[in-house]
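Notes to self, Serine/threonine protein phosphatase:
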Amino acid sequence: MKTVHYTRILLWTPIILIGYFIAAQVGFNIAFLNSQVSPVWPPEGVGLSSLLLLGPVALPGIYLGATFANFYNNPHFQTAFIIGIGNTLSSYVNYSIIKRVTEKTDPLYSTKDLIYFLSIGTFPGSFISAVLGVTSLWYWDFLSSELYFNVFFTWFSGEMLGFLIVAPLLYVWFYPKSKLNLELSKQLELFLWIIIVYISGSIAFSDEWPLLFLPIPFVIVTSIRFRQFGATLSTVVLSYTAVTLTIEGKGVFARRDASGLSINDSLIFLDAFLFCISGIAYFLVTATRERERAQETSLKSLQVLNELKEKANEELEQKVLERTAVIEEQRIEIEKQLDMAKRIQESLFPQKEIVPNGVEILFKNIPMMKVGGDLYDIIWKQDKQELGVFICDVSGHGIPAALLSALVKTSLEKWKEDPKDLKESLESIRTQIIPNLREHFVTASLVHLQTETGVLTFARAGHFPLFIIRNSGAIFSLKPMGRIITPIFDILAEEEKFQLEKGDLIVMLTDGLTEARDPSSLQMFGEDNLLQLVCDLRSQPLITIRDEVFQFVIHLSGGIRAIQDDLTLGLIRYTGV
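result:
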């Protein structure tokens, strides 16, 4: 295996080096401010597409190509060495991010993958390359301090355009399983549309006819007609035309100030325009490809169905009966497993009644299926007179959500040890569960109550506010900052304190209650209606309030079998010590 690996490196390194060098010369031809700073840096597209197509095998070729190209343009070994590192790191960092978040290498495979590519698949690497490259030029006196940030911005935007425009083009046209098989007439048609895009782009960025909108319909038509091949080729042609004319001082994006043409100001607006155009083209492609895959799947399903019908014979009825029996056995087995899963999940909830001093507390959970993604937990520290309450809602339903809620349960140890530290507890939960979240997310809330003093502390991660209903009927809501638990963003939770009074009723819930719908009108129950119902019943025992709320929601939904989400309600009444 190692021999094969080294053979691939030896095979591809000179090819990538040559491609990188040629692309660099294109970039240097439109360089300004410094001979090594270009408003568009096509080699980054070569580097990223090479990694997407070949994997880390491409790294030696990228580094050697970047170092050699920069040294050839400016024979200074130190800067060429560091710029080569920056160019290589930029491609590898963006490649790693794309591979991790999309689990694919095709940035135009789906709309979701495209969004990841446009948002976080270009920026980090561009920033790294700009920092290393511009700093090396400044350190060795190829760049004055006054021009540092101008050159930095130009370098950064050039990297971004290289990743955004050139990488998809090279990936699409060199991907071995994505060949453009067109007859001669179609090839001529594609060539004609590209010529039209070039001409319309030249007109749009001319001073004589500043018709900026003119290329847009032609890019769209080319993208629809030729999918990813037309989209990538037309955006590259339009981008090259726009950049070269803009840095010549032509077109609506050529901004001028007292000293003449302001390249940086021009690039800000030009980059935004090119981002929008390429984004439109790419989104058309991904949406079309997703629709075609769905149609292919439907067609295959239909073909399988027809084949089954053709094979039907006089034994069909017996086979159907046999299959029905098997399905029934499977259904019974699944029901047994669901019952077992239900018993296991029920064991995750508090198993014995907790009776804290000065507090009445009551929780109830009804999953949409036999198992669900809602979870709550309660701890009572008698010696410290501390009550801790946790509630969360895992996205989705059924067994996947239940498994994740079980994982959340195992992550509560830090909170159980110290129920005061709410922010750290939420971060600890996130740290432990994010490797398994993938497309799921979790919302959660934590409450800490000092029952002797009535001081309540609340923190949340994208969950509902904490509602407090006073004896008078006044309703307070605590809404500290805190983002949902995902693998992408930190929670950044904050804590909010509240002084309880005797008789205060605390309400905790999940969205299954507020989003319950009337099947006839599709009108949601809503947060305001739920709080008003609880407020009207505030003087009743907690069990009465709980039963009334669940009875109303289930009736509104059309019965227990018609609920569309897991239902969880928690009621805490502070009676004072």
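- The chain has 17 helices and twelve strands.
- Residues 352-574 form a domain with the Phosphatase 2c; domain 1 fold (CATH 3.60.40.10).
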